[in-house]
């Protein structure tokens, strides 16, 4: 809740201060740098041309940056320098009250911008959006790295082949090996010459011996 209140207060302060500075810077821009430099010269501000250009640039651009919440600290720092120059060279010798030409308004604006330099412009602006986006990405990367550091190793190394795997395997028999081989004559009942002998002996046994 406190953070939300701070963001709202920072937003309102930024916009109000930015509108004031844009109004003064736009006024100087409309009358032109030469007229503004001549007025600065009459006030005793050193380097009137450079001071006039710096005042127009920082008040206009810095005011816009405060309104949109971009580079708030840098813009506020430039506006602090601008107001310090106005207090030192113009309003400081005239007291506090603004109706007497005093530093009342310049001092209030300088202090408000100094506070923005110290605390920033809050989350309701471009700076806050960019910061939150960067922080989320950093947290996501940190979570991914932490998860990767605790994750188990998933790579499986191949095991060394065993002796059974490296032993030569018998080749499949070819058609020549599986074809039926002719049986040798001896395996079918002996030599063919024995058969011839038996056939040759049979007629002699059937006939009676001749006289």
Can you walk through the features of this model?
- This protein is mainly α and 211 residues long.
- It has a domain at 2-126.
- Helices cover 69% and strands 0% of the residues.
Counting DSSP E segments of at least 2 residues, the number of strands comes to 0
The helix content, as a percent range, equals: 55-70%
Largest sheet: none
What is the residue-mean pLDDT, rounded to a whole number? 82
Query: Helix count, per DSSP?
Result: 9
N-to-C span: 153 Å
Q: What would you call the shape?
A: elongated
Strand fraction equals: under 5%
| H/E element order | HHHHHHHHH
Structural class: mainly alpha
Give the topology, please.
Layout: H1 2-31, H2 33-43, H3 48-68, H4 72-91, H5 104-119, H6 126-150, H7 163-166, H8 175-178, H9 192-206
Helix pairs in contact: 1-3, 1-5, 2-3, 3-4, 4-5
């Amino acid at each position: 809740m406190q953070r939300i209140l701070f963001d709202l207060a920072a937003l309102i302060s930024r916009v109000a201060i930015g509108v004031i500075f844009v109004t003064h810077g736009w006024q100087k821009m409309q009358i032109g740098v030469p007229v503004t430099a001549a007025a600065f010269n009459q006030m005793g501000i050193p380097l009137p041309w450079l001071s006039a250009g710096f005042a127009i640039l920082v008040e206009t651009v810095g005011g816009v940056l405060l309104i949109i919440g971009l580079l708030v600290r840098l813009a506020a720092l430039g506006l602090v320098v601008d107001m310090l120059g106005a207090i030192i060279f113009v309003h400081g010798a005239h007291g506090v009250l603004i109706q007497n030409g005093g530093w009342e308004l310049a001092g209030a604006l300088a202090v408000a911008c100094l506070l923005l330099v110290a605390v920033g412009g809050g989350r309701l602006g471009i700076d806050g959006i960019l910061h939150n986006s960067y922080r989320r990405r950093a947290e996501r990367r940190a979570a991914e790295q932490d998860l990767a550091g605790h994750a188990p190793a998933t790579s499986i190394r191949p095991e060394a082949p065993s002796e059974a795997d490296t032993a030569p395997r018998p080749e499949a028999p070819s058609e020549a090996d599986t074809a039926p081989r002719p049986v040798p004559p001896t395996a079918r009942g002996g030599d063919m010459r024995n058969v011839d002998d038996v056939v040759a002996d049979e007629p002699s046994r059937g006939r009676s011996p001749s006289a």
